[in-house]
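Hello again, I could really use a second opinion on something today. I owe you a coffee for this, so here goes:
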Amino acid sequence: MKETEKLNITRSLELYEEALGLVPGGVLGARKPADFIVGEYPIFLESGKGCRLIDVDGNEFIDFLCGYGPIILGYREEEVDDAVCRQIKDKGFCFTLTQKYQNQLAGKLTELVPSSELSIFLKTGSDATTASIRIARAHTNKLKVMRCGYHGWHDWCVEMKGGIPSKFYEDVFEFPYNDLDVLEDLMKTHGDTTAAIIMTPFGHPNHEKMQIPKPGFLEGVREIADRYGAVLVYDEIRTGFRLSMGGAQKLYGVTPDLTVLGKAIANGYPISVVTGKKDVMMAAADKLFISSTFFPNSKGFVAALKTIEILERDNVLADIWEKGEGFMQKIRAVIDKYDVGAELTGIAPMFYVTFEKDDAGMYKSRRKGFYSQLIRKGFFFTPYHHAYISYRHTKEDLDLTLKAIDESLAFIKGT
């Protein structure tokens, strides 16, 4: 298979050079060039519509990152944007006091999310996971936290520890997804002083294969939390309003005490939620302080209400599951054609192509070659994060993507 020509990303590189003199590192976090493939991926985007992106050099892509998860419908979704614009123009969105949309959204969550009885609203996933831990600690009067998965950039959970005194995370302990034994051992030592067990109910670790829960795993964690009087928190920032309207907890039938939501709830507008059982959530009323100038801004509430309306009205998640399951079956068939160590994990709304690790490190060059070919062909994945399917991905888009995956695997097979 012939190698695809590299993209022209001249303008992206020029803007990056400019940014290096204006922003530390030019671009921060998961959007920096090293989190893709340096020299292959654009660094700056110009626009997006539906499931397509255009970068500053005019390259067009079918996108599977979906803004790292918030875009459940599509970019520039007119109904959602129009609702927000009407709110801005007709009523305003930033006031000293709260608007009624807080109540409307909280009420809707109680209809949809099994654990939801009371809710508080914030802006980012890291805001919400951190608030959930503060609530759990205030409710239980305990200190320690057991965690599984990525929960944001705040002091207690961020992986890079620069600038953070060890005392801020010394009471936080990690356990692997699908491994009850490690959690049980940790709780035997720390259970009596554990305030919370926070976890992603569906396994999507950074840079690793995705995992569905093994039989009894989620139920086992629930039982351990109950036995030790710890608050069970589900971090559903990625899975909420994507795996089902009630999240992974609805799909898998295990209900936590607190749930953290964000990303897809508002199709890209900034809002996050801590929602949960009344007896736990009431700690936020009188035992602690959570506040921000921008938490009550109504743009996110209005966007979330309209997004949820569309998700329900158009049966969006059923459509995504149907398209995604068929797409994944076809990807598996393509992977089976080429003995290059490619592996497909995940479920229909969220999937990931990785390469089996080997002692010689060949998986790294295969991964780089595979994803370089895809981006050159106009398909926006990343080697280091799973993909999403949105409502605006058509079956034709997925067929084009399948052809590109086939050609990219054929290329690395021949190298």
Summary: DSSP finds 13 helices and 14 strands in the chain. The CA atoms of residues 123 and 328 lie 33 Å apart.
